[in-house]
Q: What sequence folds into this?
């Protein structure tokens, strides 16, 4: 892919939607995230000064775009926050889960995967996953990769974050979306966010989790990027 041409085309498209709907519109954010994703994949595959410049410019722009962006919660119960070995843990309501989500689990359970340093590379396809980072230090994803524009119409067909966190007793350190890419030598790169209306993890929890994943999966710091929503 010619990333310079791709970047130029997307910037023109973003500009049109900004004029029509404003800079904080969801479609503008999704377009930026789509572009950022492709640039990051290109950066990990074949790093160059030009690609790095395009990516950094978009990374700064999308962080500004995210300020004030609303995350749907739909009056769901707030998670209980408590501490375990100085870590802030978020625990979703077991009662709410039992009443609203447990009977749906059979649809998704086989595709809820705990990642390890061995199997993570097979999921590094240059797309996003829903994830939770459990209080036990496990990184769990739902194995249905997506790109941002595919989610404009909503998350139908995807489990909620508490459903992904079922394997860690609904207790997580962070939850959101995770982009995983790799180069031709299987070196990994990730973009991670805390976009979860059920768990609403703090930016501090996102930073902590990004650092833990970087260490756990031996991902160089320069290949780890965070997008903070809270």
A:
């Amino acid at each position: 892919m010619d990333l310079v041409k791709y970047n130029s085309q997307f910037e023109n498209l973003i500009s049109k939607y900004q004029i029509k709907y404003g800079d904080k519109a969801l479609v503008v954010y999704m377009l930026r995230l789509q572009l950022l994703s492709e640039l990051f994949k290109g950066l990990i595959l074949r790093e160059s000064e030009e690609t790095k410049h395009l990516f950094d410019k978009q990374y700064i722009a999308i962080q500004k775009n995210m300020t004030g962006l609303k995350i749907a919660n739909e009056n769901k119960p707030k998670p209980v926050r408590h501490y375990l070995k100085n870590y802030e843990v978020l625990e979703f309501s077991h009662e709410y889960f039992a009443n609203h989500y447990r009977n749906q689990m059979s649809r998704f359970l086989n595709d809820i995967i705990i990642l390890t340093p061995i199997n993570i590379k097979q999921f590094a396809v240059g797309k996003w996953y829903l994830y939770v980072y459990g209080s036990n230090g496990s990184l769990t994803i739902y194995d249905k990769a997506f790109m941002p524009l595919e989610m404009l119409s909503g998350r139908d067909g995807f489990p909620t974050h508490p459903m992904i966190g079922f394997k860690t007793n609904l207790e997580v350190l962070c939850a959101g979306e995770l982009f995983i890419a790799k180069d031709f030598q299987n070196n990994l790169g990730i973009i991670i966010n805390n976009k979860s209306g059920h768990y609403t993890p703090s930016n501090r929890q996102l930073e902590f989790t990004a650092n833990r994943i970087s260490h756990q999966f031996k991902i160089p710091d320069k290949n780890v990027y965070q997008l903070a929503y809270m």
In short: The chain has a mean pLDDT of 93. The longest helix spans residues 26-45. Strands lie at 80-84, 87-91, 112-115, 127-134, 139-142, 171-182, 188-193, 224-227.
